[in-house]
Amino acid sequence: MLSSQQLQEYDQQGYLVINDFISPAQRQVLMQRAADLIESFEPPQKRSIFTTDEQERSSDDYFLESGSGIGFFFEEKAIDSEGHFTVPKQQSINKIGHAQHLLDPVYKTMVKELDFATVGRELGIKKPRAIQSMHIFKQPSIGGEVGLHQDSTFLYTEPKSCIGFWLALEDATVENGCLQALPGGHHIALKQRFKLLNNGGTEFECLDDKPWPTRSLELLEVPAGTLIILHGQLPHYSAANTSNRSRQAFTLHLVDDACHYPTDNWLQPIASL
Q1: Cα angle vertex 151, ends 25, 266, to 5°?
Q2: What is the pTM of this model?
Q3: Cα dist. 37→9, 96, 104, 145, 235 in Å?
Q4: Selection from 200, 196, 134, 197 nearest residue 164 by Cα
Q5: pLDDT tens-digit series, residues 93-141
Q6: Residue whose C-alpha is closest to residue 247's, from 232, 228, 267, 229
Q7: What's the confidence (pLDDT) of residue 1?
Q8: Cβ(273)–Cβ(169) under 8 Å?
Q9: Closest CA to 164 of 112, 215, 226, 229
Q10: Of 115, 118, 146, 261, whose CA is between 20 and 30 Å from 45?
């Protein structure tokens, strides 16, 4: 599925952009399924807000349990200080995650149809395992920033094997918070690991305390239907959505089942699946 030129570009840059990977009909299936899931979702009294604040995320049990379920996370600005919605429910969700590719028939069928496993093998994964999925909304005007990070921080294997597949379900522009990546940054050491503690809870373990390089990030403005493949150690970022247009995306992360997947990773695979 990938040419030698594409493989070389991925090795050099740490990311690869493939246009027209998913059809308009397939995009519509995923967006409609997400809308249906949100419609049937009854928000609990205690609502889990997606945040890049490390302490708050690490103490959120709902977030941790979503690794083996289908969780709904709210935009920070969608809920006021008294817990009331500032926007309608359909416009309040930051993302759905993290196991719909295993538990939901629509997402499960689409992942199989798009054959991410074959692409993963061509990129060097011996035994591809889909470990995490997310439907990300980046809502108009309130879609939050996602700080610079490396995916292997959260999906760690020994040796490191994580690869991210980011599908643009809608146009991604600088105004609505497109991805930004550090070209060649996958050669940088992994900075952190997000892991479970023996006595409960989680922590970010520092692996490398050198500051991020100061060179500029590459703006990855792409039209709907584009696939962006991200090396697990590639530093990437997305700014807040300041526009009146959403920026929906579907992401899937693969790891190599031939590698060791530690039992202290925050996300533990569903044994029955």
Answers
A1: 105
A2: 0.94
A3: 37, 9, 10, 24, 31
A4: 134
A5: 999 999 999 999 999 999 999 999 999 999 999 999 999 999 999 999 9
A6: 228
A7: 87
A8: no
A9: 229
A10: 146
